[in-house]
Specification:
7 helices; alpha/beta; four-stranded antiparallel sheet; globular
């Protein structure tokens, strides 16, 4: 579904009187199948979010080629049915939970009645039917992120981009939402590309974990996750955590990983 070939991205910055070129991504080659759950993992500055934005068409790229559903792009993509979910929820404070979800459908041309009808289905999907009339100010962080997830999913995107959506949440809420997201991904078979710094989260959610290194941003490993994920403390799970941690230890520049 998504094929990235020899993709490069640079930023130009000014240092004193001189212009410097920063290589955010260098020679990125990656294929993502329809319905796959792919994790981007690496230190700050390795280009995870930049790659996410390039796939979604939010940023251009310098050279290379990206094809999405056989449509080929150079310089900038324009994928149909692609949604991005952020860390900060981005809910409209003057709309209740139901109408925050309905907003995404209204922007696609659905009537208010149709939008609310479909929004109720997705409130049920994220188990928040009882909070349909609650406003964001009265919701917890986990509830807000469920609403943001439901809003993104209700327009039935082919690709869902998630940029560290659970990083600001407490551990219990984060694990609960990881379980929900995994359940939803299996149920809807939406292609998901997820950025995280948490190795356990990467293994639990991903069909594959793509490890990146900075300066310049490059892919250094593509690990298919084949283990039983039901027990996060199993020898298999912990062994894979150590293997991925070693990759990160070899390439990271700062100490920010949750191992």
């Amino acid at each position: 579904m998504i094929k990235i070939k020899h993709c490069n991205k640079s930023f130009h910055t000014k240092k004193s009187q001189h212009e410097a070129k920063y290589h955010a991504l260098k020679n990125i080659n990656l294929e993502i199948k329809r319905g796959e759950f792919v994790i981007l993992l690496g230190s700050s500055g390795c280009g995870k979010t930049t790659l996410l934005n390039i796939i979604g068409g939010f940023e251009g790229f310098d050279s290379g080629e990206i094809s999405i559903d056989s449509e080929v792009f150079h310089k900038q993509t324009n994928p149909k049915d692609c949604i991005k979910i952020f860390q900060d929820f981005a809910l409209l404070p003057w709309r209740n939970a139901l109408d925050n979800i309905a907003f995404g459908l209204q922007s696609k041309g659905f009537s208010l009645k149709e939008s609310r009808g479909k929004a109720r289905e997705y409130l049920k999907l994220v188990h928040l039917e009882s909070l349909s009339h609650s406003f964001p100010i009265n919701l917890s962080g986990g509830q807000k992120q469920r609403i943001a997830l439901a809003r993104g999913l209700c327009v039935k995107p082919k690709i869902l981009l998630l940029d560290e959506p659970f990083s600001a949440l407490d551990n219990f809420t984060r694990i609960s939402l990881q379980n929900e997201l995994l359940r939803i991904s299996k149920e809807l078979k939406t292609t998901m590309i997820f950025v995280t710094h948490d190795i356990e989260e990467a293994i639990f959610l991903g069909d594959r974990v793509i490890i990146m290194k900075p300066n310049p941003g490059q892919i250094v490993a593509d690990i298919e996750i084949k283990i039983d994920k039901s027990d996060r403390n199993s020898l298999e799970f912990l062994g894979l955590k150590r293997k991925i941690a070693q990759y990160l230890e070899d390439y990271r520049f700062d100490l920010e990983y949750v191992i």
